[in-house]
């Protein structure tokens, strides 16, 4: 296997490992903005996963320094978690903007952007940003 191809597979695996963290912190930030708090039960409902899955993931995010979770209280973002949420939201908005500019329907663009945002390189994001500014 060639090195560039091996690099792309490695990058994809690394991207997958950050997807869940980015999705969770983005949703936690959204819930806090909407309701004033982020609870495990709300994350489970929005993500369509079990409360056990949310609990395990939140524990991992806490170990990684992205959230603080207190028993019988909400889930809070750390500064690092807020930074990741902001970065994730910006990536999503750029990819969504490109898809909408290409004529993709709002519903499909939203669905596709959710998956694509995690796999777009910084170089590609810069190119999308330049393209959208010219439009």
Describe the structure.
- The chain is globular and about 50 Å long.
- The protein has one domain (3-134): Orthogonal Bundle (Arc Repressor Mutant, subunit A), CATH 1.10.10.
- The chain has helices spanning 3-35, 40-47, 51-63, 79-101, 106-116, 122-134; strands at residues 67-69, 75-77.
- It is mainly α and 135 residues long.
- It starts with a helix and ends with a helix.
- The model has no long low-confidence stretch (mean pLDDT 90).
- The protein has a two-stranded antiparallel sheet.
- A hairpin with a 5-residue loop joins strand 1 (67-69) and strand 2.
Distance between the termini: 40 Å
**CATH architectural type:** Orthogonal Bundle
Kindly identify the CATH topology: Arc Repressor Mutant, subunit A
Indicate how many domains the architecture comprises: 1
Mean pLDDT comes to 90
Helix and strand run: HHHEEHHH
Q: How do the strands line up in the largest sheet?
A: 1-2
Helix content: over 70%
Over the alpha carbons, how many angstroms does the gyration radius reach?
16 Å
Which oligomeric form is depicted?
Answer: single chain
CATH top level is Mainly Alpha
List unreliable stretches of 5+ residues: none
How large is the count of helical segments?
6
**CATH superfamily descriptor:** Winged helix-like DNA-binding domain superfamily/Winged helix DNA-binding domain
Strands, total number: 2
Shape: globular
């Amino acid at each position: 296997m060639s090195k560039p191809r091996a690099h792309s597979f490695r990058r994809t695996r690394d991207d997958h490992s950050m997807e869940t963290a980015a999705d969770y912190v983005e949703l936690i930030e959204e819930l806090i903005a909407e309701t004033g708090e982020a609870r495990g039960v709300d994350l489970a409902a929005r993500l369509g996963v079990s409360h056990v899955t949310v609990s395990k993931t939140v524990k991992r995010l806490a170990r990684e320094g992205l959230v603080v979770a207190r028993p019988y209280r909400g889930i809070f973002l750390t500064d690092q978690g807020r930074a990741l949420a902001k970065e994730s939201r910006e990536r999503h908005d750029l990819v969504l903007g490109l898809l909408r500019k290409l004529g993709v329907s709002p519903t499909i663009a939203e669905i596709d952007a959710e998956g694509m945002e995690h796999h777009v390189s910084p170089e590609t994001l810069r190119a999308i940003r330049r393209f959208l500014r010219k439009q």
